[in-house]
Amino acid sequence: MKTRKIFVTAICLLIATMLVRAAVLEYFGKVETTMDTQQAIVISDDGETWNIYGEDVERDLGDIYPGVCYAYKLWIKNQGAIPAEASFSDSWVSAPNGDSSGIDIHHYIFGDTQTINLRHKDSATWEVLEGAGADITFNTCGLTFDYTMD
To answer: Residue 51: which of 73, 33, 74, 31 has the closest Cα?
Structure first.
C-alpha cells in the first residue's frame, strides 16, 4: 500500500511536471508582418500640401534687389513621437544679373503662437507710459489670422 501511494504520487508529480513544462513551452516559428511608415518631419509652403523634409522647396521671387525685404512662410511639422532637429540651407539658382552679393537671408522660427505686448509710449522718447496697453496672442502657423487680446 505504501508502494502504491509512492507510485501514485510519482505519477502525479510526473503529470504536474509535464503540464508545467507544456505551459512554459516557447513558440519557435516565424512571424511576418508589414508596416506602413511615414516621414516624421514634413514641410509645406502653403500649410496644406506636405512634402518630405529634405526635398527642395522652390520659390520664384521674381526680380529681387538688395535692400528690399521679401518674406514668406514655411510650415514644418514633426509627426514623430520625439523632438527632432531641422535645419535650412539656401541656394540661388539665379539672381539679378547673376549677382547675389548684398542679398541676406534670415530665418525666423516661431512656435505655434506668438504674443506681442502693445504699450502706450511717449512719442518723443519711446518710454512706456502707465495705463493703456494690450497683449495680443496670435497663431503663427495657421492659414488664417486667429488671435486673442488681453
So the answer is: 74
Residue 38 has pLDDT above 60, yes or no: yes
Cell 532637429 locates to 85
Predicted confidence (pLDDT) per residue in 94-134, tens digit = 555 666 666 667 777 777 788 988 888 888 998 888 887 89
Overall domain count for the chain? 1
CA–CA distance, 139 with 135 (Å, rounded to integer): 13
In whole angstroms, give the CA distance from residue 70 to residue 96: 15
Query: What is the domain range of residue 145?
Result: 110-150
Tell whether 65 is covered by a domain.
no
133 part of a folded domain: yes
Is 126 inside any structural domain?
yes
Rounded to whole angstroms, the Cα distance separating 128 from 124 reads 11
pTM to 2 decimal places? 0.47
